[in-house]
Amino acid sequence: MQEIDRTLPAPAEWRVELIGVPAGADVHLRLRLESVMEGVLVTGELDVPVTGSCARCLEPIEDTLHLDVQELYAYEGSTTEATSEEDEVRRIDGDYLDLAPLVRDTVVLNLPLAPVCSEDCAGLCVDCGQRLDDLPADHHHEVVDARWAGLAEKFGTPTTSSPGAPGESPTTEEN
Ligand SMILES: [Zn+2]
Ligand SMILES: [Zn+2]
């Protein structure tokens, strides 16, 4: 059995649309390599820093993912290797066990497609585009339809019409 405890810089391409591992960030691997009947069993954990933006409110996100790893690397000629498809099982290549693809797949497959700044992030106001979490709970907009706005103008404003205004006074014709 062998233990690996290493910190390695992340490559640039560990990223999905809204979140990813900053290139060069410290990725901490604590892995245990055990010889089993069919090959080498790799178990352990990864600590991976991620940065991105919230899918609901676009706030920047900074977090560390703690991921579990468990994977069998099959020996050449083992039953596992013989009964699995080419891409179904990882293989030991001679004496060489390539951990990089396992770490990459574990990280990339665990990056959230819709990351959130907090589980109950309310997102953005559809009318003004501000973060609802930053606004008072009763935040809302008086939305007046343009056509109703026209009516409000016509009937809503009280007009002072006084009888006998200049020009309006009835004229009487006398003979
Ligand atoms: Zn958010
Ligand atoms: Zn608003």
Structural commentary:
The structure is a single chain. It contains 3 helices and 6 strands. By secondary structure, the protein is of the alpha+beta class. The protein folds into 2 domains: 2-109, no CATH class; 122-157, no CATH class. Strands 1, 2, 3, 4, 5 and 6 form a 6-stranded mixed beta sheet that branches. A hairpin with a 6-residue loop joins strand 4 (39-53) and strand 5. The N and C termini lie far apart (128 Å). The model has no long low-confidence stretch (mean pLDDT 87). One zinc ion (ZN) binds at residues 54, 56-57, 59, 116-117, 121.
Order of helices and strands: EEEEEHEHH
Radius of gyration based on Cα positions: 34 Å
Count the domains. Answer: 2
Shape: elongated
Described by strand count, sense and barrel closure, the largest sheet is: 6 strands, mixed
Low-confidence stretches: none
The secondary-structure class comes to: alpha+beta
**Distance N terminus to C terminus?**
128 Å
Task: Tell me the fraction of residues in β-strands, as a range.
Answer: 25-35%
Bound ions, cofactors and other small molecules, one mention each: zinc ion
Overall residue-averaged pLDDT value: 87
